[in-house]
Amino acid sequence: MNFSIPKETYTGRIPEIVFGKEKKAYFGGESALPFHFFEGEFIYKPLIAFEIQDDIPEDYPEELAKVYSSVWDSPIKWAKFCETLGAEAIALRLMSTHPDSKDSKPEEAADKVKKILSEIDLPLIILGSNHSEKDAEVLPVVSDASRGYNCIIGKAQEGNYKTITASAMAGGHSLIAMSELDVNLAKQLNILITQMDFPREKIIIDPMCSALGYGFEYTYSVMERIRIAGQIQGDNMLCVPMVADVGFYVWKTKESQASESDIPEWGSLHERAVMWEAVTACSFLLSGAELLIMRHPEAINTVKRFIGDLFS
Amino acid sequence: MLIIGERLSVVSKKVREAIIKKDKKPIHEIAIEQWKAGAHMIEANIGPAEDEGEGVMEWMVTTIQEVVPLPVSLDTTNSKAMEAGLKVHNNQWGKPLINSTSLDPERFVMFELAAKYSVPIIALTVGKGGLPRDAEERVDIAAQLIEKAAEFGVSLEDVYLDPLVLQISTSQEQAKEVLRAIKLFQQLNDPPMKTIVGLSNISNGCPKHLRPILNKYFFALLMYEGLNAAIANPAEIIEVVKTISIINGKTLYAHSYLEI
Amino acid sequence: MAITGIEIFKLLPKTNCKKCGFPTCLAFAMKVAQGQADIEQCPEASEEVKAKLKEAATPPIRGFVFGSKNIKIKIGEETVLFRHEKKFFNPTVLALEIKDTESNIDGFINEVLESSIERVGQILKVDAIFLKNESENSEIFNQVLDKIINKAFDLPLILGISKPEVAAKALEKLKESRPILSGATPENINEMSEIAKKYNVPLIISDKGIEKVLKLVEIARSVGVQDLVIDTQPNSAKELLMDNTLIRRAALKKGIRLLGYPIITFANRDDNFYETVIASLAILKYSSIVVLSSIPKWKNLVLFTLKQNIYSDPQVPMQVKQDIYKVGEPDENSPIIVTTNFALTYFLVKGEIENSKVPAWLAIMDCDGLSVLTAWAAGKFSASKIAQFIKESGIEEKLNHKELIIPGYVAMLKGAVEDKLPGWKVIVGTKEASGIPAFLRNYVRSKK
Fold this sequence. Notes:
Chain B is an alpha/beta fold.
């Protein structure tokens, strides 16, 4: 019996995102569901950005401290270290601006960003601290300070998208739009952003990542639904790339921190922690993320191998 | 939902006069208005057009496609005029649609044209023996139309079954039969048969202010039963299309769904 | 794959005799297609049309049960490509491959027996042993089989045997259970099918690629084996994803019966990290059985959790048991937080309390697994219910304070809860779990 491949009909192609000035990075552009090479074209591999923070992290567990504690006192040192590890892009999270952390000022954050841009030529993603009100103050100032460097700014949410969108537009940047595990809210946020004349082709959806075991399946299914709506059901507003901000959520979990002596039935901490991040990330590649923000180099390498294998 | 703008029809005095005088302006205006209102296709209804049918159809099709990037639905019983329109049609924005054929053997020539030019065709579920009385009769005729299409070499995916909408003021009970027929038509084949209606027929002969009301609510019910396409006034139905699409789960909801 | 009105109509006599109770054959055919009439109503209906209808009613992907006398596992019978369309039903079976040439068989058996852990009220474990006839020798294989039967008679088995004679001898020993027989290839498909049929065991069919496997499936079916498992030997993640997706699509969307079977993935890789990733891909993308080369506890935890997550019912929230949980080592001075028993709420709140390094009591109330706002709207997380829960829990005796922290989203309940819990003070906590660490640290500081 001859087997003819049952192909899906697609209505939309995901736009391509290019960011960075001296060095550029690319993702997006697929014309079919994740890695369905038999029925579409995939011009770029998914991109992994290494996360760094603007100050010494307050909540990095031991397994991450082992890797970064010698460089995390300076974002520039940290970024350069990531470069030696093979980073193609850096995600700078301005954690110190969070009111519960150092509550540092927008101008201080902007200064840091300017310094980093002058010393690092890797493409840059700039993330706020996820505190909605503070981000509304910080991100516009930072967008302005990085004007012309073609960065990705994140994250705009329903409560604060107006100023962040306007400044990202003025700065010529791409924008991460985050909604909380809800397809309809994700669509609505994109409508609101595009109604401000921000181009749909420069929006990246963040459906709100969850670690394995901590709501993972909610994120996974929301992402699958977004891809199907955007690429098969002709919903233009949802036909954009997605980001999985993996490290931020995975390294809060008990599974990434508890030692084997504390919980013997969980086995060795190092492998467990690295795999918790790697498997969460690989799964979200399958549900549609074109951009991953990750922390542990061994997890990143495993995911890179997976991507290579998928593109073989 | 395939929305076909109905307003360029010889039923309208303005359009009749424009055709006679070969005045492009009103045609352009109405075509553009319908396009902006959300039409995916523009209907050119020239009627039986016994005089100079070919010239009229060619003029209509080219005039419309001068100003809107849309395909045209060709509505005439004159098969020579139909063929002239198909020949001159600009296919870059989509194929033209033949409106229509039926089980009346005099109309089979339209099936031939559909096969020859490889274009979709509307098939009315009416035969030589008078108007269909209920959904079951319509389904019976539809089954025969499907056979005929296959005979002529027309792909079933190119056939739009039209259950013949009758005016509610004189045939009130037929409204329900049309709704049932739309549902049953789809079950005749896999993938489901496509369906279409001439929407405004439901309110033919009603007072002017009632027409949009009857059209809209009837359209909502038709959409619920799975209707694929409609020849209608786009401005009148666009809100219904978007809203029922959300209720039916075909489009994802967002608070600003009417704005996009 | 549903059969349409026209297809049924074509197989009817078309006499419009009305014996079925309908005016025309077409009308009757339409009703049968919709499930509103029975084909038996037509006395003239042919065996052909009846057979076609029966076909259409069979599940698109075969399901079957295998296992030991006391432990029965069902696999297959899936109905959707995406879990949000309905649910994935029968969770992936995880099996440890043991070669019959290994010296430490006992060690491996123990690992499998000791693999179980509990998470959100479910026991998760390595489900089966894939015993590989690496020696190609029947006696050696049966010796190892004996060891397994003695030590772990309840453990479901998959027998990886390529020689039909070895298979037959092994299956003689296992008549009380229903193991799966693996190892049918183009070279031995006929004999293996006969053996599978004779002993009534499911058969795993293996060849390179879907088209080749189809041929083997046809042969096995013609011999009469109904329970089959497919292995298309993908040698990359790319092929694995493609094969599994096309198989499930073909079965569900195109009604291709020959591909309507569960899939097995051999995840063994040189690198344990990478094997975990490949096993994860297989679990997420439609494999019913995944065979692993090793089962260290960290790897099991990852795969168990993934399996549990992806096979959960999108419509039914996961819940934890109502209780007053200790986070860290709380004492009589420690804060107490109350919230609902939605599993996600529990994990997030517990996690953030741990991140705060402030030991605390976490009072989890049964609200049918709803999250805070939903439970409140449904009247399950009400002031009186909270008060009753706290009173009945007896936590008051363990504390030397009477301050209860409630979730920020139900701040409006503060007054009502204080009314119903006389002597207690209610503190309004954060709306988001992420705010808990700062909140708790401030709270504890303010008490000093």
